Amino acid sequence: MALVLDNLYYTKTHEWIKVENDIGIVGITDFAQKELQDIVYFGIEESIVGKELKAGDKFGYVEAVKTAADLYLPVSGEIIEINKELIANPVIANQDPYGQGWILKIKIKDKEELKNLLNSEDYKKHIGEA
Amino acid sequence: MIIYYNTKMLKKTPFYEKHLEYKAQMIDFFSYLMPISYRSIKEEVLAVRNNCGLFDVSHMGRIEVSGKDYKEFVNYLITNDIFSLKEYQACYACMLYEDGGIVDDLVCYNLPERILLVVNCANLEKDYNYILSINKKFNCEVKNISEEVCQLALQGKRAEEILSSLTNDNLSEIGFYYSKEMKILDVLMLVSRTGYTGEDGFELYFDRSYAHKIWDALFEKDSSLMPCGLGARDMLRLEMGYCLYGQDIDKDKNPLEANLSFVVKFNKDFIGKEALLKIKEQGLKRKLVGIKFANKTVPRPKMNLYDSNNNLIGFITSGTFSFSVNCGIALGYVDINYCQIGNKVYLENKKEGEIVKLPFYQFGSIKKSKKEV
């Protein structure tokens, strides 16, 4: 069973976002890390920090032993930080996908966009674990 | 009334319950429910390299050939030479089509009055029917014993030590690619010093009714023994440059270009020999090579390979990130004029790789000191 936390928003492409005031913390879900298995590295350009990106934009990719997958932004906004520890030690996303394994922080442009995302119940249905 | 048929009945090996008990992530592997990994591929790969791992390989096909002229029959089927084997010795070989394309790669055991062929899971039905079609000229007894007999692979430098604790027999007298019928606990089985990892180790063939008993005994004897899935198995074999059927070899590849000449014996007759001689005479067009990439590049099957002028020179057949070598590694076919060791090759995204000598992993504990076939 994949872990799905109640206080997060989810995308159909298996990213999560945690909202703290107008800052969003983004990562990949426990379901995603289980599917990917051993993550080898995150391909995210440092140059995206400071850039304005839109909801649904590809912001990087993740390479695992079995496969690679693109990463998509849940909401629009300015990227303010990338988790350098995760880039240096990507296996953290396997071990703690909702905690130490966060990928980036974003200044959310429009909180209305959160309504387009899945809540935990919807996401559980989406991965067939409701 | 609508009747729903379960169109996809997945098969289970006798170790299925053990995989669940050991919390494996299961996948559909050519209609078998098999463990891809239990904890992480990395932990499992490194356990086999540094200690010992146990693999359920019961999904492999097992076919027994016996009866009058059974050795002549098998010798005609495979590229290696059965008559060069001592009793209980085994060999690796290819089975070919007339045109030199590969039906399958397999391990053949020269047992008393019979030969055991161990073939790929995905090819079992195809191989069995192919063998039966050739058998029309020989009339041997061909028996698919895959269901009755299960198979474990105990791999790693501590394999002999761990297995020895469950038997009174002397394992050290079993040489590389030799086998012996012996009792592990009180279960009679065929034990061979073989594997697919580059590490010393054994494969055990025994009646499926003892599956849980043997599995449990091994883990009870050594708590550091690591259950390993297909993910680790694939990485370990690729680190050694071993071919996988369906990826590196298939009906459109011949054993000469796949670096398998060492199991092709032209001093005897076999199906596909004429075609291979012709291919040899005309010269190979491409060759399977090992390619190493800088640490952050993960090569994948079907990716194209280019030279520095962007000319297409080949393609990747197997690729992964290797935890033993700590970089991206791949097997692929490269144009014969470009396949020299040291040459640089490029992926579509310009990431550079270098053709290197195989194996990628140089420190395997495999014991080749005793006679190797």
From TrEMBL, chain A:
One of its GO terms (cellular component) is glycine cleavage complex. The modification N6-lipoyllysine is found at residue 66. The keyword Chaperone does not apply. SUPFAM superfamilies: Single hybrid motif. One of its GO terms (biological process) is glycine decarboxylation via glycine cleavage system. Residues 23-107 form the Lipoyl-binding domain. InterPro entries: 2-oxoA_DH_lipoyl-BS (IPR003016), Biotin_lipoyl (IPR000089), GCV_H (IPR002930), GCV_H/Fam206 (IPR033753), GCV_H_sub (IPR017453), Single_hybrid_motif (IPR011053). The keyword Glycoprotein does not apply. Keywords: Lipoyl. Binds 1 lipoyl cofactor covalently. Its cofactor is (R)-lipoate. Transmembrane segments: none annotated. Pfam families: GCV_H. It comes from the Bacteria. NCBIfam families: gcvH, PRK01202.1. The glycine cleavage system catalyzes the degradation of glycine. The H protein shuttles the methylamine group of glycine from the P protein to the T protein. Belongs to the GcvH family. PANTHER family: GLYCINE CLEAVAGE SYSTEM H PROTEIN (PTHR11715), GLYCINE CLEAVAGE SYSTEM H PROTEIN-RELATED (PTHR11715:SF3). The glycine cleavage system is composed of four proteins: P, T, L and H. This is Glycine cleavage system H protein. It comes from candidate division WOR-3 bacterium.
From TrEMBL, chain B:
GO terms for molecular function: aminomethyltransferase activity; methyltransferase activity; transaminase activity. It catalyses: N(6)-[(R)-S(8)-aminomethyldihydrolipoyl]-L-lysyl-[protein] + (6S)-5,6,7,8-tetrahydrofolate = N(6)-[(R)-dihydrolipoyl]-L-lysyl-[protein] + (6R)-5,10-methylene-5,6,7,8-tetrahydrofolate + NH4(+). Pfam families: GCV_T, GCV_T_C. GO terms for cellular component: cytosol; glycine cleavage complex. Residues 286-361 form the Aminomethyltransferase C-terminal domain. Its EC number is 2.1.2.10. One of its GO terms (biological process) is glycine decarboxylation via glycine cleavage system. Gene3D superfamilies: Aminomethyltransferase beta-barrel domains (3.30.70.1400), Aminomethyltransferase fragment (4.10.1250.10), Probable tRNA modification gtpase trme, domain 1 (3.30.1360.120). Keywords: Aminotransferase, Methyltransferase, Transferase. Residues 15-268 form the GCVT N-terminal domain. Substrate binds at residue 203. It is an enzyme of class 2 (transferase). The keyword DNA-binding does not apply. Belongs to the GcvT family. The glycine cleavage system is composed of four proteins: P, T, L and H. The glycine cleavage system catalyzes the degradation of glycine. This is Aminomethyltransferase. It comes from candidate division WOR-3 bacterium.
